[in-house]
Amino acid sequence: MGTQKAKVIDGSAEDKKKGGTGAPVKKPAKKKIKREVAHGVAHVKSTFNNTIITITDITGATLCSASSGTIGYKGSRKSTPFAAQKAAASVADKAKKFGIREIDVKVKGPGAGRDSAIRTLQASGLSIRSIEDVTPLPHNGCRPRKKRRV
Q: What class does CATH assign to 39-100+116-131?
């Protein structure tokens, strides 16, 4: 019987030419850059089903976020003020790791968790410089449906 050659499944074409083992080559891991940000913006989006809190720097790059769902609540419990309070406490702890001390708060939406989220951000040690409501309001936008004739 003749000699059989083993097929190289993994590895690049260069690896085959060099006579390597065929094992995939690992790239060195990228180092995470630890940013120190003193001032940020907290975006609180409160809907009827959930409350999402995102902390960004002044340019708008996201630093950390949490929601009532990521805390572990499901279903109708996500829409409660208590779930929003827990999410705000979680995101405040993450934000302190970035060195954030002052935040501007922008609130969007009609949900139940708006006020409790802002109070929790204040109670967790972040100083709030301003609170702004950025809920989108239509200026008589879409045309309504035709009237019902009975």
A: alpha beta
